[in-house]
Batch of 2 targets.
Target 1
Amino acid sequence: MSDSSVVTVGAGWALVGLVLLGLLVLLAAVVDGLVGARASGASALGGAMRPLDEGARLLRQRRRTTVAADSLLWRLGGGGLLVTAALMIAVVPLGDWTILDLDVGIVWFNAMDVLVWALLWLTGWGANSAHGLIGGYRFLALALGYELPLMFALVAPAIAAESLNVGTVAAAQDGVWFVVWMPIAFVVYLMGVAAFSVWGPFAPALGSDIAGGVAAELSSVDRLVFEGGRYALLAAGAAFAVPMFLGGGSGPLLPGWLWVVVKAATVLLVLVWGRRRLPAARPDVFVEVGWLVLLPAVLVQDLLVAVVAVWGS
Amino acid sequence: MLVGILFWLLAVVAVLAGAAVFIVDSMARATYALALSFVAVGLHVLLLQQNYVGLVVILMMVMEMAIMAVYMVMFMGMNPALMPMDMVHGRAAALVASIGTFGLLAAGILLVEWPARRGSPAGDLTRALGEELMGPKMLVMAVVSPVMVATIVAGVVLAAHRTRYDRMGDDLTGPPSDPQPGGVGR
């Protein structure tokens, strides 16, 4: 579909991609358990084992039912997050290989992260629970604040590489990584990843003040899939940052594909670490921050990148 | 072959999901049936190798339906939209109009003499399409977009219940008093 430098591998390799995504999810969950155990003074081993314990507990749990639930939409919403994350990583080149070498891979990623709008709201709606619906509304209100800065953050690497193809963007960073000269876009991108993963400060949609919000009525395997989907979105977002800002597979000694995994894991760990470090972004308050601070900042970043790109060519 | 099968499969999904909008009894289902229909159309555009246009159709339509679901639940007049509802109003007239339109368009497809292809597709279809649509009219487009934005802003300003005088006093010097303070502390 395009003349980029990466090689498209057969569809069967998608399984390898899914396994790598699963490993990243496991890493994030274990480290999050460790960080949580450390914060609450519990034992480190218990913290590290927490994702496995929790998974086993949820798999054995009896499924909760609610009155007049819209089960179809409910399950679609909760299960869709994992699918969305898997579709996101389809355009992330693993060193020299990619599963889907789309000429507009960045737009693909963007379309996938917008899917989360629908999926989160549907999860909140489906249970026929007031708390879930309020959570869904909260997420959409927050989305109005984060989505445009995130979109314009993704524009910066595309302008610099003069391509929307992810492999070409990665290859355009052989001199200096984009994160070095577009730090604002990188930080706003990371914020966007945390936001579409309903993570850390961007989790008021799951707030304890509304009894868990979107996830209030989720139980058993539904909850496991939903939580796994959030971690998978976080991991997919971290993986997409590697070709966008962190030079793709470039690095000394190790092969390219391993560098991609190492960099993705590093970004992921930063996101996991940041979970408990930042105050909650209340949707009503954050919208103004998004539109009056982040959006102009990232537009100025785009302008600078465009000037450099025009100058250089 | 595979593309042909996919095309017809997506066409069936698009039509059935579009029909489902008027069959289902829930606001959320109607909204997202419409979203599904649009996604199928977006995938059609992808099959036409208009990758950018196709993905943007999917992106915009999912986003719009997510917002529309909120507005529908908020503003639907006849019931709170949280109860079972029906998207059809004026059933007889609607049926006549829709069946008539469908018949007209279908007859057009079948009766019109389709032209044979002249020349070959451009290398970059999206670019060719953009230049065909916009090329000679770029000046108009460039003028229209700021006018549209100004119209939206003016509309919101005119519709807003509270003006800057309500916010900051008659001489516009006081600290803004908002029922809901924003995040940058104005």
Target 2
Amino acid sequence: MMTIKTLLSRVALVAIMAWPAAGVVQASEITVAVGSEASTLDPQKRDDGGERAINDNIYETLMARSASGELVPGLAAAAPTQVDATTWEFKLRPDIKFTNGEPFNSDAVVVSVTRIIDPAFASEQMSYFGTITGAEKVDDLTVRIKTSGPDPILPSRMYWMKMVPAKYSSDPKFISEPAGTGPYKLAAWTRGQEVVLEKNPDYWGDAPSIDTVHFRFIGESGTRMAGLMAGELDVITNLLPEFVAGVPKSAAVQGVETSVIILSTENDVTKDERVRKAMNIAIDRKALADSLFGGYAIPTKGQLVNPRAFGFNETLEAYPYDPEQAKALIKEAGAEGKTVVLVGEAGRWLKDRELIEAVGSYWETAGLKVDYRIEEFGEYLNQLFDKNHRPDGVFVVNSNELLDADRETSFAYQAGGTATSNKDEEMAEWVKQARVETDVAKRKALYAQITKKANEHYYLVPLLNMQDIYGFSQRLEWAPRVDAKLLVKEMKVTE
Amino acid sequence: MGKFILRRIFQGFLVVLGVTLVVFVATRLVGDPAKVMLPLSATDQQRAAFEQKFGLDKPLAEQFVTFVEGLATLDFGESMWQRRPALDVVAGRLPKTLQLIAVGLGLALVLALPLGALAAIRPGGFADRLTVFGGLFGLSLPQFWLGLLLIMVFAVTFRLLPTSGYGSWAHFILPAVTLAIPATARLMMLVRSSVIDELNQQYVRTARAKGLSFRQVLFGHALRNAMVPFITLAGWELISALAGYTVVVETVFAWPGLGLTAMQAIKHSDLFLLQAIVFTVAICIVVVNIVLDVAYKLIDPRIKLA
């Protein structure tokens, strides 16, 4: 029961502080909280979520994706055409300007490409553009992009490369005063705290309905949640599954991350295929998805490739959960009581440690002993990338931003790949062929072959496709995208 | 006095240099920025290009020479995470941490003295029991949990204060209180026990016998003599806050200070930024120490400044 006195004192406090109460906010102004701080507003330097969330609204790319992940033309007028095996031609949309007045044309594309692939620039995004060797202007609205070899993924790559103005991008001010072609432009940047964007009045596409957006940097998930509950925030990212019930509104969408354990085909215990099979069928993936992630994850279908990616094999089934057969296989292989080393880390990905320990306990139930090695992130990476000494099992969460199977296959399937632990030379050859096969049907068939073989030989223990969970205020309306991009132009508020 | 301060400044300079060198070696031993900063899918060539850009491919001796040359001109290189001079990043964040510490510890000092003295007047009495209980309670609350609890009560339930962030004076209240509660508890318990000690001294009885009032004895003698341990602990609180106590509070309240930035530098293996932060914090701590020594001398002339 609130007395008059306390009521008055509270009202006075609120009045003194002139703190806007929830609901007094402008209808067309929203606040989005992101977990990591924007480090630079140069859209070509870094590769982190804090920078991307903001720059995705300021800058645009030649190709774009629909909310469900389909590749569509962006700043390009149409999908690119191939001039020869290593040259792609893009026609550009006319009459588009950067917010500093420079025109968007072939010159801008040439500068954007040469700038990002310049080794002296040391872009962290180079892993997306490794095949690109340069760009040349044909005319004002026609530009050709060159690759080192045939590159079927080039159109997808151009969905990741943000276009910067030809002249201004070499100005030192560019990193803190951005100029893009996108629906929003920078209004204010208070380092470490927030970035404010406002509608770009000259935007070439449909005008967005939200005028102003504040991006606030809040690393702690509990604090983000509190901000949403207090009415200060409209959108929060990476909402924890256990918090879903507590927010005004939430939405989840299948994301680009998939957790996996990469098994060594050479080490003592895991070189026996029966053991690797047992390690796969000993795990109840559905139970992991439901208990650890509150149902916000989907058991993988016997492969690491993201279900939305080109090259996902529809014909493969999820590995069954058969603890009895797993036990029998371990016994048959003479591996009962033998130790497998499971390398992982803690704190980088959602519930990573819990997932690693849960999987390990399934393996122990099947009769193996598990030596958990939860390492500091830097040391963990040393072991993940060590080509000479592969752990029996190494846990990793793979992320496929380009939605193309080349990412997973070159990362974990191809012998000698970034984090691969098998020595299957035939399969490695297929991965290399698929990477340069520009015939779509043939390429799809190669990925079907690769994923099927890896599935039958149990090279990997694919675990769960993660979902991205967002929390919203009551007034915000938005359907999250599969590529995890926070596109404010798609958002609306109802008052 | 002047000679003493000069000597301490020189010693402090050596300490800062030593700490900075240790950090140089330690960061080179543990972090591998090219692995941590680049996406997992990056190739070995891409990592090599990144290392070349930041000079991490050079032999350690050569990196060390570059580092020392930079140190002489206060140039710590470019933060890999923010891609601008590391010291610029620090310069933007340090004042915010200092403000938070000033308000938080200021609050603790203002509260601890009267509360501790009040408890000491009648040991075992009601006021004493209440303050001791409060003190123990304040000491045992995990700061992280305390911060979130304050947010839930004052920002979410009553909507009186912002949940997090930096900007208006309203943003200061919850983080400063979170920082102040455990510090107040520690300081208050110390004041209490020191004053109880002093009040049992022979000179207090003498002073009372001479006809001085209890109030004159308490404020004129006992509290003044209790100030030496109090200042020592207050200095310690300040040094702990500078050396990282604020990290938790800054994290919970999304406070854009140096503690949070240090965490991010570690997370990103941003060696250059980390070196700049440690260097700056070391200077702050050395300065605090010198100020403390001078303060001792002013309070108690018997203390020899060696």
